């Protein structure tokens, strides 16, 4: 049977074989273009900016202009030279690059925040490896002059507390212009950037410097929120900031026992939800968490680190959102947060990226179809139409 099929293939006209081959190439190319490029537009196009009140401004145009459109993502974990396999790098970094660039093009945010763990091996990287990783990051997360990118430090960028050194912190700050206790004010909205790795509370030099900056910034913000007719000598010489309550941005979440109360399709898996969190490793310590809440009284906290989504209410009124990982390496269903923010209000909406499992399913289905078409073409597989026709003929003959 195989020899006869081989003879049949050889006898096929060359033009017919080339035409069939061209059709296969076009089909395979179409699947590749859709899975590696178009699918990001199809999925992210469905995301919409949430509505929010415009605050004190009056009029539709002024209200629209007063709203800051911000994207929050976390834990990109660009692989390094030690643990990163070339194919893993290629696959996951292409996914993040296409997701980021598509989101910028479709959603046109004013500002993007990355909440730490930009790199996977920043805590180990040699100077050359660090430079290579930074170069890849800048290519993947390039942005136009109409968008601002702000990066917060994570434990994989500079190491856990016992691995953190002045050298590692300084090289991160040099690239990303990040300092703990830095205030970014846009459209009257105050964002406080925290180096949560330095909130160990053991009095180390980096920890003391970080906490001192946070305390000084807290004093400025508190003085700025006082009423103009309120007399306070301690605030007389303090630079006034917008009176908006701050939004806290950091890598570690504030203290919580576990993810047991977290819900949603991108929360932690059921087998992980009840595992107790370790203070100063999975979450900030209770003491550090209370300090940040007391110093800033934030209206919103956004964090990363756990790679899963969670919403927590601190002190019964302060919401914290844990932003899931942006990478397929950490989640099958990565996502980012879209925020419409004014000085007095905010509204958040989650935007999911393409599921890795769905892309894999499309490739498998396309591959199976290609195999069937090839087998049918060389007559090793009877086409379904002729098979059904043969059955009908036999039935009539009986």
TrEMBL record:
**Protein localization:** Endoplasmic reticulum-Golgi intermediate compartment membrane
Q: Which cofactor does it need?
A: Mn(2+)
Q: Which domain of life is it from?
A: Eukaryota
InterPro entries linked to this entry:
Calcineurin-like_PHP, Metallo-depent_PP-like, MPP_MPPE1, PGAP5/Cdc1/Ted1
- Please provide the record's keywords in A-Z order: ER-Golgi transport, GPI-anchor biosynthesis, Hydrolase, Manganese, Membrane, Metal-binding, Transmembrane, Transmembrane helix, Transport
> Is this entry keyworded Membrane?
yes
Question: What membrane topology is given?
Answer: Multi-pass membrane protein
Biological process per Gene Ontology, one example term: endoplasmic reticulum to Golgi vesicle-mediated transport
Role: Metallophosphoesterase that catalyzes the removal of a side-chain ethanolamine-phosphate (EtNP) from the second mannose of the GPI-anchor protein intermediate. Participates in the glycan remodeling steps of GPI-anchor maturation to allow an efficient transport of GPI-anchor proteins from the endoplasmic reticulum to the Golgi.
Similarity comment text for this entry: Belongs to the metallophosphoesterase superfamily. MPPE1 family.
Record's protein name: Metallophosphoesterase 1
């Amino acid at each position: 049977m195989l020899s006869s099929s081989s003879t049949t293939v050889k006898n096929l006209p060359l033009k017919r074989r080339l035409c069939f081959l061209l059709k296969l190439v076009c089909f395979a190319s179409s699947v590749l273009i859709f899975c590696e490029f178009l699918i990001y537009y199809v999925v992210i196009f469905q995301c919409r900016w949430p509505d929010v009140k415009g605050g004190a401004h009056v009029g539709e145009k002024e209200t629209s202009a007063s709203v800051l459109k911000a994207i929050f993502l976390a834990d990109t974990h660009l692989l390094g030279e030690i643990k990163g396999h070339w194919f893993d790098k290629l696959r996951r970094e292409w996914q993040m690059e296409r997701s980021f660039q598509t989101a910028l093009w479709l959603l046109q945010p004013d500002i993007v925040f990355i909440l730490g763990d930009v790199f996977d091996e920043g805590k180990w990287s040699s100077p050359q490896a660090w430079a290579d990783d930074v170069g890849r990051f800048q290519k993947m997360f390039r942005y136009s002059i109409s968008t601002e990118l702000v990066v917060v430090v994570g434990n994989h960028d500079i190491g856990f507390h016992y691995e953190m050194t002045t050298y590692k912190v300084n090289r991160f700050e040099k690239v990303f212009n990040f300092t703990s206790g830095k205030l970014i004010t846009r459209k009257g909205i105050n964002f406080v950037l925290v180096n949560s790795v330095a909130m160990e509370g053991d009095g180390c030099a980096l920890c003391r410097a970080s906490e001192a900056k946070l305390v000084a910034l807290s004093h400025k913000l508190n003085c700025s929120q006082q009423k103009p007719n309120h007399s306070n000598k301690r605030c007389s010489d303090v630079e006034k900031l917008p009176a908006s309550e701050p939004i806290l941005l950091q890598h570690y979440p504030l203290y919580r026992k576990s993810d047991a109360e977290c819900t949603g399709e991108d929360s932690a898996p059921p087998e992980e939800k009840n595992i107790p969190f370790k203070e100063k490793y999975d979450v900030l310590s209770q003491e550090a968490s209370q300090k940040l809440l007391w110093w800033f009284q934030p209206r919103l906290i956004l964090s990363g680190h756990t790679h899963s989504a969670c919403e927590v209410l601190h002190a019964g009124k302060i919401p914290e959102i844990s932003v899931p990982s942006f990478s397929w390496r950490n989640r099958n269903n990565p996502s980012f947060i879209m925020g419409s923010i004014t000085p007095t209000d905010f509204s958040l909406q989650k935007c999911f990226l393409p599921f890795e499992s769905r892309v894999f399913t499309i490739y498998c289905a396309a591959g199976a179809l290609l195999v069937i078409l090839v087998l049918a073409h060389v007559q090793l597989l009877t086409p379904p139409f002729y098979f059904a026709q043969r059955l009908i003929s036999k039935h009539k003959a009986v």
